[in-house]
Amino acid sequence: MGSKEMLKLMLLESNKLFREGLKRLLYESGFDVCVEESTLAGALDGLVINENLDLLLFDPCELPGQSDGESSELYLQLRRAAPNTKLVVLTTRICPQVFGTALESGVDGFLLKNMSADALVRSLQLVMIGEKVFPTTLAAVLVSGGFGAISAARTAHSMKGLSDREIQILQCLLNGYPNKLIANELHITEGTVKVHLKGILSKINARNRTQAAIWAMNNGLGASPSPSA
């Protein structure tokens, strides 16, 4: 790597053989796995001791004592322990619960273990320059509304005081519509769409359109092929 500074990384993974192989692979590409942990407790301690880690790469579905990566508490604990560290999921499990929870929790990337070594390295490099990286297949399902309702408990939630128009806009988000297309479909101006979006984000405590779409799916709205005014 010459004089280029190595990026410091923690690898949180229960499989020791996988950790060792990935550590060698990443080192050749400028990522120094300086901390390895196999449990959440160990990772939390390691994050406190090693305050200057650039990235945490972990599989939430393989950690002992965790509920298959579906609990947001795992992400909250990691974020509290390392507020300035990039969090990237690397897992074999593809399901809406795990993906949705990871996105809602604000991870910087969600990657799959069946990707190529080159793709993994490029993805981590993108994360380190501030990009959000997710599998194309999962992102496509997300915006199409193909996940459907996540659970009966979540679909029973109230609509947070949303108006009929705001619900229509959320359904448009599930279709992946940009503001201009939403405005055309609902026969309103783009400015009005922006005002509604701001209100929606505030009511459901979402930070962006993606989180709003996830909230809509989790609450059983579903995508609407052709919203009406």
TrEMBL record:
**InterPro entries from the UniProt entry:** CheY-like_superfamily, EvgA-like, NreC/VraR/RcsB-like_REC, Sig_transdc_resp-reg_C-effctor, Sig_transdc_resp-reg_receiver, Tscrpt_reg_LuxR_C
SMART domains xref list: HTH_LUXR (SM00421), REC (SM00448)
In this record, what's one Pfam family? GerE
Source organism's superkingdom? Bacteria
User: Which sequence positions carry the modification called 4-aspartylphosphate?
Assistant: D59
Q: Where does this protein come from, organism-wise?
A: Oceanibaculum pacificum
What is the protein named? Two-component system response regulator
Q: Taking every annotated instance into account, which residue ranges of this chain make up the domain HTH luxR-type?
A: 155-220
Q: Name one GO molecular function term.
A: DNA binding
Query: What Gene3D superfamilies does the entry give?
Result: 3.40.50.2300
CDD domains, per database record: LuxR_C_like (cd06170), REC_NarL-like (cd17535)
Q: Which UniProt keywords apply?
A: DNA-binding, Phosphoprotein
Which GO terms are recorded in the biological process aspect for this UniProt protein? phosphorelay signal transduction system; regulation of DNA-templated transcription
Domain Response regulatory spans what residues? Answer: 8-128
